[in-house]
Design brief:
Blueprint lengths: L2 H22 L5 H4 L2 E8 L4 H17 L3 E7 L5 H13 L4 E5 L5 E3 L1 H8 L2 E4 L4 E3 L13 H21 L4 H9 L3 E3 H6 L7 E2 L3 H8 L3 E3 L5 E3 L6 E5 L3 H9 L2 H20 L5 H19 L4 H19 L5 H16 L12 H27 L5 H5 L3 E4 L9 E5 L2 E7 L8 E8 L2 E6 L11
Parallel strand pairs: 1-2, 1-11, 2-3, 3-5, 4-6, 5-8, 14-16
Antiparallel strand pairs: 6-7, 9-10, 12-13, 12-15, 13-14, 15-16
Length: 451
């Protein structure tokens, strides 16, 4: 992420924090001075939009003088740059931050593991797990050995630094990066020293366990939590954040890209339709926004473009279906390769790829075939539309002496290279402005053996 983008994200986060504070400030200490607990839920991929959401929540809690910020986390991972932004704000926060991996069956993997390590308190629900934080290439391309080692060392150093600053198991944190190890709630809590601070079956049980608990902040200062009778402020994503976060999902991005391609294809083959072009352009812009966030494999993107080209060529080149088969195959493999990530939540499945690919291929083949047929169809308007039309001579026509004919319900001046009697059927052979060149209409050929 560029420095300018980070500044914009910071401004957006600050603005979101201010708006959130205004929204909850009336009676912020309601209930006779009851402590406030700000609660955010991150369920999905970590990227700039979710980073803005979490940073805004932490800053709003600081501004409101809250007693605690709780982040319920369930994520397959995401972008390291966005993770670093979240961790920087988390470590500098005035309000203690708890990361709660919940509900049962959830995980905080990859970049989510680093966020969990940065929390003042890491709590896990029974049946959850954390870890598998080995870095992967964000552009889809495989990292060479040197770059892979550098990336792993960098992430491992972050994990060690966070674990050591929080008094957690440094060795296990390092193994989560170098060996991609994952740890269950019991393994994380029972390790010596522990990787997780406590196991809580529910959010209410978490607050009860933390009441009166003394924590050590990252700067070494100790702080005792007082949460009796706490009022929980649930902080949802704004509609804008929900929309952008939904777009930044592999399946949604792929569908938007497919719809955008289809819309522009329809607009190209029927200029002036407007709606397909506008909708297609909008879908492509949204898809490209998601591609900036997701680990896109550009080889997969090129395969999709090549597949579309083969489908178009199938109509113009006689290949007996070989180009169509090659195009569909290229689309399928390109779609499967489009998002290169070891995390299942960030890959496309065949159940999505096959219906979309086959449907898109069928529609494009149909549209291209219609376009080719329309180009081959004989013209019906203008001068070209008059050629070979049949009419009736309204006067005798001699070579060099023009006469009059009726064609298409209109009377024309016509010349001919042969004699044509009044009332004979004529056929148009050429158009010169307002004058026609005609000949006798050729009689239909009788079938052989006919009487």
């Amino acid at each position: 992420m560029t420095r300018r983008t980070r500044r914009v994200a910071g401004w957006l986060g600050t603005a979101a924090a201010g708006l959130l504070l205004l929204a909850v400030s009336p009676g912020a200490q309601g209930g006779g001075g009851a402590p406030l607990v700000y609660h955010a839920v991150l369920d999905g991929i970590i990227h700039p939009v979710t980073a803005e959401y979490l940073i805004g929540t932490i800053r709003a809690a600081d501004a409101a003088g809250a007693a605690l910020t709780v982040i319920t986390l369930r994520t397959p991972g995401g972008l390291v740059d966005s993770t670093l932004e979240i961790n920087q704000v988390m470590l500098a926060a005035k309000t203690p931050v708890v990361v709660y991996v919940a509900p049962s069956g959830s995980r905080a993997a990859s970049a989510g593991f680093l966020i969990a390590m940065a929390a003042d308190v890491l709590a896990m629900a029974p049946g959850t797990h954390i870890g598998a934080a080995h870095p992967v290439g964000t552009g889809g391309e495989p990292l060479d050995e040197t770059m892979a080692k550098k990336a792993a060392e960098d992430v491992a150093a972050q994990a060690r630094s966070l674990a050591e600053g929080r008094g957690r198991n440094v060795k296990l944190a390092e193994e989560a990066v170098f060996e991609s190890k994952s740890f269950t709630d019991e393994e994380a809590a029972n390790a010596k020293p522990p990787l997780a601070d406590l196991i809580a079956p529910s959010f209410d049980a978490l607050l009860a366990s933390l009441d009166g608990h003394t924590i050590r902040r990252f700067n070494g200062r100790e702080e005792t939590l007082h949460l009796a009778g706490a009022r929980v402020v649930d902080v949802p994503m704004s509609w804008r954040q929900q929309l952008l976060s939904a777009i930044a999902h592999p399946q949604v991005a792929y569908l938007l890209f497919s719809l955008g391609t289809l819309g522009l294809t329809i607009e190209l083959w029927s200029p002036g339709a407007i709606v397909p072009g506008v909708v297609g352009g909008l879908c492509l812009l949204l898809a490209f926004f998601a591609f900036q966030i997701l680990p896109v494999n550009y080889a997969g993107l090129l395969l999709i473009a090549f597949g579309l080209l083969l489908l178009v060529l199938e109509i113009k080149v006689t290949s007996y279906g070989l180009l169509a088969v090659g195009g569909i195959t290229s689309l399928v493999f390109g779609s499967l390769m489009l998002f290169a990530s070891p995390m299942p939540g960030m890959r496309l499945d065949l159940t999505i790829v096959l219906p979309v690919t086959l449907g898109l291929s069928a529609i494009i083949l149909f549209l291209v075939r219609l376009a080719v047929q329309s180009q081959r169809r004989r013209a019906t308007t203008g001068d070209a539309g008059m050629l070979d039309e049949v009419g009736v001579a309204l006067s005798a026509i001699e070579p060099g002496v023009p006469g009059r004919v009726a064609v298409h319900g209109e009377i024309w001046t016509a010349t001919a290279s042969e004699s044509i009697a009044n009332g004979e059927e004529i056929q148009v052979t050429a158009v010169h402005g307002l004058k026609l060149t005609v000949r006798r209409a050729r009689p239909a050929v009788a079938p052989q053996g006919g009487k």
